[in-house]
Amino acid sequence: MKLHIVPARTGMAWVKLGVRAFWRQPMALAALFFMTMATMSLATMIPLVGPAIALALLPSATLAMMVAAAQASQGRFPMPTVLLVAFRTGRERLRDMLTLGVLYAVAFLGIMGLSALLDGGQFAQVYLGGAPMTKEIAENPDFQRAMWLSMVLYLPLSLLFWHAPGLVHWHGVPPVKALFFSIVACVRNFGAFLVYGLGWLGVFLLGGLVVSIVSALLAVAGLAGSMAGGIMVGAAMMMAAMFFTSVVFTFRDCFEPPSTPVQEEAPHDNPPPSPPDTPPAGPL
Fold first, then answer.
1. What tens digit of pLDDT does each residue of 18-31 get?
2. Most exposed among 38, 100, 144, 168, judged by the fewest C-beta atoms under 10 Å?
């Protein structure tokens, strides 16, 4: 397996490819994203272990969106069964994906635990949905310190798991090695990922501006209220779905395709092919 070192401008190409792939199958990809979020929300309702189970499902949910985006980019219609892709590619892959999920849940809960040392668990309760956000809480210095600590620690965690689901699924890489290769790929392609992040920040800011303008026009027309709230939630879900749609393109350009196809997978489970001008690859 080899790692591709891509120029910084590739980050903007990933944003464009994600948006383009989403609009090829907008209803299907938006519905799949909503179903993954709904499944994780339902999991949090399980007593005691619900939040941990929801966190453990995130790598599988990310993989499902990657496969669905690959199908959409190839002109195929992603079916709801793609949500189970992590659980239907053999016992070994299933075990590895479950291991990834457990590692992610443990690491994330560890970050929340460290933040609790600063504010007594207030930020963790708000972030995990167990407590409402109030002005008093937001202005609490201990809460702010816990929030910034969590953000700083979550960045390397997200890099560790960014490519890991795809490496396990398409390359058969063991979970721990997949985490290592994932963060190496992100660090080696720092410029591209920086541009990628800034590009999506611009998309979200532009989307927020459009929603604000539409909400203001509805208010002038006397149609504000629940309609404006629905538009805001719908726009946020759509932009989040577009973001997750773009993840597969970062994976495709950072790693060479698998040398041999996995027999248990359908052909449309393969990542989208690299463009003809793929940059030279270097050994990982």
1. 999 999 999 999 99
2. 38
